[in-house]
TrEMBL record:
CDD domains: PseudoU_synth_RluA_like (cd02869)
UniProt protein name: Pseudouridine synthase RsuA/RluA-like domain-containing protein
Keyword Nucleus: no
MF term (GO), any: pseudouridine synthase activity
Family of this protein: Belongs to the pseudouridine synthase RluA family.
Domain Pseudouridine synthase RsuA/RluA-like: 29-133
Biological processes per GO annotation: enzyme-directed rRNA pseudouridine synthesis
Gene source species: marine sediment metagenome
Gene3D superfamilies named in the record: Pseudouridine synthase
Keywords: Isomerase
Length: 142
């Protein structure tokens, strides 16, 4: 017997917005979206609209996980505002818990491809280092 206690869903105070989404994959458990650069993932501070969460609330209607709370429904991970790439959102609490566990247990691999302007010593390469907050601008990651 498996006993699973899920947190109570909280009603979202964030408004659904008809923002176009580039959906790569979707089923009853999750949705994978190609997030464009300059789109904020979830509302924060004074930003309450134009985010991926606003778009997902419109697209998924009532089928987003409530585990992320009222500000981050369905959000399992994030990408910085200036970063484009695939985002996975959970459509129910079971999927949210399982996806979170997979990320925590390093069963999910994140890969970043950077476009660089300027002259480089090599044509290509691999940077195998942690990403951290920029020392020059705390709002940016480097």
């Amino acid at each position: 017997m498996i006993d699973l206690a899920l947190p109570e869903n909280k009603e979202s105070k964030i408004k659904a917005e008809a923002i176009p989404l580039d959906i790569i994959y979707e089923d009853e458990y999750l949705v994978v979206v190609n997030k464009p650069a300059d789109m904020i993932v979830h509302p924060a501070g004074k930003i309450r609209s134009g985010t991926l969460v606003n778009a997902l609330l419109y697209h998924c209607q009532d089928s987003l996980s409530g585990i992320g709370g009222v500000i981050r429904p369905g959000i399992v991970h994030r990408l910085d505002k200036n970063t484009s790439g695939l985002m996975v959102a959970a459509k129910n609490d079971f999927a949210h818990l399982d996806l979170s566990r997979q990320i925590k247990d390093h069963q999910v691999t994140k890969k970043y491809i950077a476009l660089v302007h300027g002259n480089l010593k090599d044509d290509s390469g691999i940077i195998d280092a942690q990403i951290g907050r920029s020392l020059k601008n705390r709002k940016k990651m480097a």
